[in-house]
Write a structure and sequence with these properties.
Layout lengths: L7 H10 L16 H12 L13 E9 L3 E7 L5 E8 L4 H15 L4 E9 L3 H7 L4 E2 L2 H12 L5 E5 L4 E7 L2 E7 L8 H10 L4 H9 L12 H13 L4 H21 L11 E4 L6 H11 L12 H12 L12 H4 L4 E7 L8 E7 L4 E4 L21 H10 L13 E4 L5 H14 L3 E4 L5 H6 L11 H15 L4 E3 L2 E4 L13 H13 L9 E3 L2 E3 L6 H10 L7 H36 L3 E5 L7 H4 L2 H7 L3 E4 L19 H15 L3 E8 L4 H14 L5 E6 L5 H19 L1 H21 L24 H15 L10 H5 L3 E5 L3 H4 L2 H6 L4 E5 L4 H10 L6 H15 L8 E6 L10 H12 L6 E4 L14 H24 L8 H19 L1 E2 L8 E2 L2 H14 L10 E6 L1 H5 L7 H7 L3 E3 L3 H9 L2 H8 L4 H16 L1 H8 L11 H8 L12 H13 L4 E7 L3 H6 L4 H7 L4 E7 L5 H18 L16 E2 L32 E2 L5
Parallel strand pairs: 1-4, 4-5, 6-9, 13-14, 15-17, 16-18, 19-20, 19-21, 21-22, 23-24, 23-25, 25-26, 29-30, 29-31, 31-32
Antiparallel strand pairs: 1-2, 2-3, 6-7, 7-8, 10-11, 11-12, 27-28, 33-34
Helix pairs in contact: 5-11, 5-25, 6-9, 7-9, 9-10, 13-19, 14-19, 16-17, 18-19, 22-23, 30-31, 31-32, 33-34, 33-35, 34-35, 35-41, 38-40, 39-40, 42-43
């Protein structure tokens, strides 16, 4: 019957006492006791700077104004070092008007006898305010903040400043700025971040901060941007979290963003002994407390934390004051009738077409913003171009400065070439070849934002890098011009050379033509030819015949000798261009040194030459009075090897070489350009930093995307310039700081017994750091010592002696069913292996701490899992090794071993050997040797694992007795583990050891799964889970996606693990024909594939006997032809073409619903995952595919919502007449600990009573706080 009505009061009471079924993780309260809070407030209450009323000012005074992005601050100090005037307020969108009012107040408020001796502006609006008020000087804000911190806390070692939308970290060594880090484009973790959430929760930021201090159970909200964080906050609210707990959780998130993404802190000792925090956000006590808790350090927060930029500007003015005369600062009279006229203008002096804003003030001063070089700001009719070398400008013109054939001479017609990605490296080669072949080469025009927007509709992946997004616009532009023949090859390998390990292109550069081919529908129009052969530049011999064949496929009959001659000319031109670049570099260095000019090596990928991509940064550098060099103009093969990373990408090999030279030559500095979404740079940036710091130099990275933010770039570059100047003259700075300090301290003592901030103790309350040094601190100290000696590291190797001594080997989890067989398998070979079956939030947090946060999610998960074992004390670093796989391809997964070694070293365990396992044998592991019998048994074990996985997923949604499928799985897990150990099983023999053959075991296993009692119901919607290998197989990594699928009444399907190995062996013939890779690989790989398929024969026979209940995985040879018109075999990064083939196979065999699980910003998945969806949907209209990105900070709610929509479509579209009414009801999922180590949790996905979920063969599923999406 109908439910009885309930009163509103009754409902409110029920809600208040209801148990929350899904709960977000919680963190330590900011204060565990009243005593902790009292000590905190007492300590920070003592950090004061001397002050006086304006009327008490004496003698010469100095004004500093900090014109920030959202606020404006001002400080005046007098001759006694006291602050006599302060201002902190919003600039209300008009910093000039706010600054005018400040100066008017200062001028009228100072008493007679007090004079402004000098003034200084800093901050984002420095130039504007300086011009408007005729201030004496401007100072880059990073240096202003450093000087303020040094004054407050003499001997400061780190300065962390968090403002409204920006964040800065200054590392100080020997009284000089050693390195500077700032947030790039995202303001998550800054003051505006907290203000946004305060407003959404109906309060102001001050009340929001006070609420956090009273929190007893802060919500762990992760470390992502505002968009993702918003989902986490909403989920926490659904679960009953109040404002206090959410505010405290956000305070933790602010600090974690700063620590992991900007400071990249590995150990608190890296901050040094004296840490100063400042900026308006640190006025929030909850953020300050979170910082101290997360770093384990007591820090100094001056009582003027929000004014430190202005204070530093005032100190700068005092430093540079001659002591005579008065400041040029505008007088009160000059401010009467002050006005400003603003106009906008497009500069036409070059093809950048800068959009300039020109402010003309009533005092006659003029300020120009938006210009990339000084020519735009000039008043001359035709401003002269700077004489400073700018090799970005020169190289751009050299690369594309070719005259094409006339129409009459182009006997083969027009051939379009897009000005994109690898063409910035190889255009001279391709232009020469095509011209010699009789084509008129039609290069697309220069990039601009309008061209980007022209191609936006066909971009399949929103988080691919901007250079890749531009490709769509360039192709569209060629087609609009009527160019119907387009040549855009997939260059997998560049030319080899030097001491590099390989010569790959990155996956996006190498294979983006595949995305274009499948997503730009106009390329399928009649008469349009898109020629995109796969090419290997490291093998010249095969190229003529290969390209003849590629052009013939599109109707061009080119004789082999003609192609060979054209390629000879192309190679010659390519070499000439590279020689010219090096010669131009030598000439530029000579000019620099003759004129006493510093140079910046602006190091990036070739496509960073594109002004639309680099946003005019080269011109900004020239405007700062420094020359611009490219990385390939200065390389000279001086770099010492081997490197920590596997040096496998050609463009990045040049970065490493250039870094070595920059570090050796004092008049050069390096700035590395990094496009947002470039996963490869997560590997390379750390290695470049190690090379530079190993030579005592500074590493600066500029992240760039489609949004031009020259203001931030200019600050970084000026900061670098100032840091270099500070390093060159540390002694005067120290002496000056001492003099300032003595004056300030004497004044402080004279004022009511106040204690200067610098006298506050900085010793941790928990650990006396003067007496104790933990392993991580010791490792950090050793690393600094090693950096002075260089970047070369001695790898800890797993030796035969370690094996004989019984070292434990830690193996990370990947596929629960298969990897449970590892321990008995390797024990046969005399290896003591412990599988780390579960990950946790804590291990992921450890991964975030010790792995570059731009690295892919699997690296953070796996490395965090391994390092956490040592950090927690569960593993002995002196008797333990760790194992990790290497793929060996162009994917960054090949460098997981390098990331792991760095993480172990940073965590304080450099002695732990890393066993890097790869089919190619990329590294030698003397103590880890497997015989043929061991490998034979390993293949058998993985084949059995695939069979069990398939059968378990097939029967579990239909089991007649809840939990019976998992009980059967656990039985066979025990049987297989026993059988692997010695070929017998007590479990199978009912207590007696019974010997089993491989085929016999498989037959018996399949019979028992076939005999399992099932409900007689229609088959449920089938949902496939594909994607990156770890994310699709590891339940913790994909937030238990299989459990979600089954809990909602669907049947999950997973590919086999062995199929990945088949994929790796299946392309030898194609590789020889299309990449010129033959030899041993061409002979061996087909035999390997044949042998692997023989191992699966018993499974195929046993499955055939079940009458279709269980289906074997399709042979890789059957999958290839059905998917090659979508993703060709040249897609070999990560899962490569096999990922697309998996989706085709599932759709064609009754599983059109697919979750493509991928790490956030995974490079190969931009191509073979999201990049293929349009083609799949065009061919298979019934396909229902959703991409789900996984990342440590990604919102689980967002992930589940995406899966929910896909499952809803699956349920609505199924053809069945079961009891289900077709309505999808996603419920909260209750994950409970199973009793006992071998216990599992049953699943009754279709049962009305009990939505308990399974762990896909894992020994026990831990508590999990999933979302209740009802």
């Amino acid at each position: 019957g109908r439910a009885r009505p309930r009163s509103l009061a009754d409902l409110i009471g029920a809600l208040a006492t209801a148990e929350v079924g899904a709960e977000s993780p919680r963190m330590r309260p900011l204060f565990a006791s009243d005593e902790e809070r009292a000590e905190f407030e007492r300590r920070h209450g003592a950090e004061v700077v001397p002050k006086a009323e304006p009327a008490e000012a004496r003698g010469r005074c100095w004004l500093g104004i900090d014109a920030g992005s959202t606020t404006i601050k001002a400080v005046v100090i007098d001759s006694r070092g006291r602050i006599v005037f302060t201002h902190y307020a919003s600039n209300e969108g008009d910093p000039v008007a706010a600054a005018v009012e400040i100066v008017r107040r200062v001028r009228t408020g100072l008493p007679e006898g007090a004079v402004i001796g000098r003034s200084c502006a800093t901050g984002y609006g420095e130039g504007l305010v300086k011009a408007a008020l005729t201030m004496d000087e401007g100072e880059i804000e990073t240096m202003a903040h450093y000087r303020a911190a040094e004054s407050v806390a003499p001997g400061v070692t780190s300065v962390i400043d968090i403002g409204g939308q920006d964040m800065k970290y200054l590392r100080i060594r020997d009284h000089a700025v050693d390195s500077i880090s700032v947030n790039e484009a995202c303001s998550s973790g800054c003051g505006s971040f907290l203000q946004t959430f305060a407003q959404t929760m109906g309060t102001d930021v001050r009340a929001f901060a006070r609420a956090a201090m009273a929190s007893t159970n802060p919500v762990d909200l992760g470390t992502r941007c505002t968009v993702f964080m918003n989902s986490s906050v909403k989920q926490a609210q659904k679960e009953g979290a109040d404002v206090r707990d959410i505010s405290a959780g956000l305070s933790y998130s602010v600090v974690r963003n700063a620590l992991y993404k900007v400071i990249k802190l590995k150990d608190p000792s890296d901050l040094g002994e004296r840490v100063v925090v400042q900026g308006g956000t640190f006025l929030n006590d909850s953020v300050l407390r979170a910082f101290e808790l997360l770093t384990g350090r007591q820090v100094v927060r001056p009582d003027i934390a929000g004014l430190m930029g202005a204070y530093g500007a005032a100190l700068t003015a005092r430093m540079h004051d001659s002591g005579e005369g008065a400041s040029s600062l505008a007088t009160v009279e000059a401010l009467e009738g002050f006005s400003v006229e603003t106009t906008r203008k497009t500069c036409r002096l070059c093809q950048n077409h800068c959009q300039m804003t020109i402010s003309t003030f009533s005092n006659g001063e003029r300020h120009v913003s938006g210009n990339r070089c000084e020519r735009g700001a000039s008043l001359e009719r035709v401003p002269k171009k700077s004489e400073l070398p700018n090799l970005y400008d020169w190289k751009y013109k050299r690369i594309f400065g070719y005259r094409r054939l006339t129409a009459g001479k182009a006997f083969r017609g027009d051939m379009g070439v897009p000005r994109v990605l690898g063409m910035y490296e190889n255009y001279p080669f391709w232009f020469t070849m095509l011209t010699k072949l009789g084509f008129r080469v039609m290069i697309s025009g220069r990039s601009n934002h309008a061209l980007f927007e022209e191609g936006m509709e066909s971009i399949p992946s929103e988080n691919v890098c901007y250079p890749a997004k531009l490709v769509h616009g360039h192709i569209e532009a060629l087609l609009k011009k009527g160019v119907t023949n387009i040549f855009y090859p997939c260059v997998a390998f560049e030319q080899g050379g030097g001491g590099a390990d390989n010569c790959f292109n990155c996956p996006v550069v190498a294979t983006y033509p595949e995305v274009i081919r499948n997503n730009m529908e106009r390329l399928s129009d009649p008469g349009v030819r898109f020629i995109s052969p796969f090419v290997n530049f490291s093998n010249r011999e095969y190229l003529p015949a290969h390209l003849v064949g590629a052009f013939k496929e599109h109707g061009y009959d080119i004789p082999l000798e003609e192609m060979r001659a054209a390629l000879d000319a192309a190679w010659e031109e390519d070499a000439a261009v590279k020689a010219e670049i090096r010669q131009k570099g030598r000439e530029s260095l000579e000019w620099m040194r003759a004129h006493g000019v510093r140079g910046i090596v602006l190091a990036g990928r070739p496509y960073h030459l594109d002004p639309e991509i680099n946003h005019g940064i080269p011109e900004v550098i020239v405007g700062l009075g420094m020359a611009v060099l490219t990385e390939d103009s200065v390389i000279d093969d001086r770099l010492e090897r081997p490197l920590r990373v596997r040096d496998q990408w050609t463009y990045h090999s040049r970065l490493y070489e250039a870094a070595a030279r920059v570090g050796d030559e004092p008049d050069l500095e390096m700035v590395q350009l990094n496009s947002f979404g470039c996963g490869v740079d997560a590997i390379t940036a750390d290695q470049v930093q190690e090379i530079l710091e190993g030579r005592g130099d500074v590493h600066t990275v500029l992240k760039i995307d489609e949004v031009s933010n020259l203001g931030a770039a200019r600050i970084r570059l000026r900061s670098l310039e100032a840091a270099v100047a500070e390093r060159c003259a540390p002694a005067p700075r120290a002496a000056e700081a001492e003099a300032v300090r003595e004056g300030a301290e004497s004044e402080a003592v004279g004022r009511e017994g106040a204690v200067p901030a610098s006298s506050t103790a900085l010793v941790s309350a928990a650990v006396d750091t003067a007496l104790h040094e933990d392993p991580a601190s010791a490792a950090a100290r050793e690393e600094r010592a090693g950096a002075r000696a260089g970047h070369i590291e001695v790898r800890a190797s797993f030796t035969k002696e370690m094996r004989e001594a019984g070292y434990e080997i830690l193996a990370p989890q990947m596929s629960p069913i298969h990897f449970r067989f590892l321990a008995p398998l390797l024990a046969r070979a005399g290896l003591r292996v412990r599988l780390l079956e579960r990950t946790s939030r804590r291990s992921t947090e450890t991964g975030l701490k010790y792995v570059n946060n731009d690295s892919c999610y699997p690296a953070i998960v796996v490395i965090g899992q391994l390092v956490e074992e040592f950090v927690s004390g569960r593993a002995d670093p002196d008797r333990t090794a760790v194992g990790i796989t290497q793929t060996g391809g162009m994917c960054r997964a090949t460098n997981y071993a390098a990331l792991l070694r760095k993480a172990l070293r940073d965590a304080g365990y450099p002695q732990v050997p890393v066993i890097a396992l790869s089919v190619q044998g990329l590294e030698d592991n003397p103590g880890f040797q497997l015989g043929l019998k061991d490998i034979h048994k390993a293949v058998q074990a993985f084949v059995i694992g695939d069979a069990i996985q398939s059968m378990l997923l097939r029967v579990r949604p239909y089991e007649a007795v809840q939990g019976s499928a998992m009980e059967l799985y656990r039985r066979w897990d025990r049987i297989v583990r026993e059988w692997i150990a010695d070929g017998r099983s007590h479990e199978f023999g009912g207590g007696r050891a019974r010997r089993l053959t491989y085929a016999g075991l498989i037959r018996a296993c399949v019979r028992e799964f076939d005999a399992l009692a099932l409900r007689d119901i229609p088959r449920k919607p089938r949902v496939g889970l594909v994607g990156e290998i770890l994310v699709k197989f590891h339940p913790d990594a994909n937030n238990h996606a299989v459990d979600v699928i089954e809990a909602e009444g669907c049947e999950a399907e997973l590919p086999g693990l062995m199929q990945f190995f088949h994929y790796s062996s299946a392309t030898a013939e194609w590789d020889q024909a299309n990449l010129g890779i033959g030899g041993r690989q061409r002979r061996i790989m087909p035999l390997v594939l044949w042998a692997l398929e023989r191992y699966e024969a018993p499974v195929r026979r046993a499955f055939a006997a079940t009458g279709g209940k269980f289906e074997p995985h399709r042979r890789i040879g059957e999958m290839i032809p059905r998917s090659q018109d979508i993703a060709r075999l040249g897609n070999q990064a990560g899962e490569g073409w096999y990922l697309t083939a998996e989706m085709v196979d599932m759709i064609e065999h009754g599983c059109p619903n697919i979750i493509c699980a991928q790490p956030f910003a995974c490079l190969p998945n931009h191509i073979v995952g999201k990049g293929m969806f349009r083609a799949l949907r065009n061919r298979y209209p019934e396909s229902n595919i959703v991409a789900v990105d996984y990342d440590p900070g990604a919102s689980e709610v967002n992930q589940l919502n995406r899966i929910k929509l896909m499952l809803a479509t699956a349920v609505q579209g199924r053809d069945g007449s079961g009891d289900d009414d077709g309505v999808l009801d996603l419920v909260g999922i209750d994950f409970e600990d199973a009793p006992g180590a071998g216990a599992g949790v049953g699943a009754g996905a279709g049962d009305s009573g009990g939505r308990r979920v399974v762990g896909l063969g894992m020994p026990g599923v831990p508590p999990r706080r999933a979302a209740a999406l009802r």
